[in-house]
Amino acid sequence: MNMRKINCIGILTSGGDAPGMNAAIRAVTRGAIANGFRVMAIYRGYEGLINNEIQEFTTENVSNIIQRGGTILKTARSKDFMTPEGRQRAYDNMVSAGIDALVVIGGNGSLAGARIFAQEFDVPCIGLPGTIDNDLNGTDLTIGYDTTLNTIMECVDKIRDTATSHERIFFIEVMGRDAGFLAQNSAIAAGAEAAIIPEDSTGADQLEHFIGRGIRKSKSSSIVIVSESPKCGAMYYAERVKKEYPEYDVRVSILGHLQRGGSPSAGDRILASRLGVGAIQALLEGQRNVMIGIRNDEVVYVPFANAIKSDKPIKKELIDVLDTLSI
Prior knowledge:
With 327 residues, this protein is of the alpha/beta class. The chain has helices at residues 21-34, 45-50, 84-96, 108-121, 145-166, 181-189, 203-217, 234-244, 266-284, 304-307, 316-325; strands spanning 8-13, 38-42, 54-57, 101-106, 125-129, 169-174, 194-196, 222-227, 250-254, 290-295, 298-303. Strands 3-2-1-4-5-10-11 form a 7-stranded mixed β-sheet, sandwiched between helices. The chain starts with 7 loop residues before the first strand and ends with a helix. The model has no long low-confidence stretch (mean pLDDT 93).
């Protein structure tokens, strides 16, 4: 195993952006400089590594960014990095730039890419969990999740005002891909009547269960949060209600990309700062190919293989809480 001394750390953001990524960039940069490392910032994720978009960062480069959403380093999804030739080009550029170790801020795909890269070229890689979906294993929270939850809650609060004025059922579609954390927890936070999530595999019955209770309660308006899904997102459920329960006035709101934006919450800024400093600490300890996570408010090191395995479970207790409180 190659244990050469690390002098220079590369940093990139990859995949979908998330509020708090800038706070993480700042923490990694300053944590590195405080410990005597040089820092090379890589723009546009792995794509930028392949195209040699690399610039040295000083502490001034990360001034005044902790409060900004998105990522100053830009992000991209890279098809080329999925090929051995692409990764070879990325490695060659990395070596020319003098980068000895890589910190990758991103979600599932980004960390999977880092894992392959680390195996092929024996590069120490450290991952930070930057994704609004909260779907990485081994960490209680991911950077961006808390801010997005608050954004969804504010949107649902506003939609509820109009829903109650008109006695309507609103299906509100939120992000989360294959994970229902955003839907489930924003439903609890906004007092929604139901959340339809992929983890609850009784898809069709989720709707009947909700409507059955709704009719019995004769509520004046109802809000249902639905996890995005190509097959059965909010539109799918709205169409079903129109067909099966035509007496209801149904509306759909797809929140879309506004969920990704906005200034990060205190929670996300603190999390990103702790994990960013944790990434440098991990490199100093000779760690490699781990994601820095948070568990029970302690910083932990999670091997990439564990972090990216699919299906982080949702607590059944959360489903019960929503069920109880939406009677």
